[in-house]
Amino acid sequence: MKKILFFLVILSLLIGCQPPLQERILGIWERTSVCAADGQCKNSEPGKAPKLSIFRPGLAIYENPEDPENQRKIEYEFYEKETKSREPELIFRFLNLGFDIRYIVKKANKETLELSNPDLNNTEIYKKLGPAPE
Q: Cα separation of 109 and 68, whole Å?
């Protein structure tokens, strides 16, 4: 009986364990769609979709095929507590352009990243292309 109980405790710990949110957002992500507040989603063309590479500590690269510069190095700050939305938030700082974009992290796992933009009232959905290089 004790062996079964021990096995169940270990199994529940293994299933429930996942990296902290700050580590789950790291990686190379491709935007698959943008969904408006009314639920209407616009899917991105594979290969032509913007890519977001999130590295540590606080560095990111945004690649947009429609942007003449194509690749912009940006900084980010991650806030898990005491945010306006009371949910985890990412603030991307486009220093050379002089503006910030605030996102609420709705979902982050091995395959999907969902970021909600409260200013534009939309949600951007990304799929993971690979891990962030160390």
A: 31
pLDDT in tens, 87-106: 999 999 988 888 999 999 99
Distance (Å, whole) CA 6 – CA 10: 6
The string of pLDDT tens digits covering residues 17-43 is: 778 888 899 999 999 999 998 889 999
Exposure class string for 11-34: b at 16+ Cβ within 10 A, else e: eeeeeeeeeeeeebbbbbbbbbeb
How far apart CA 29 and CA 121 sit, in angstroms, is: 21
pTM, entire model: 0.80
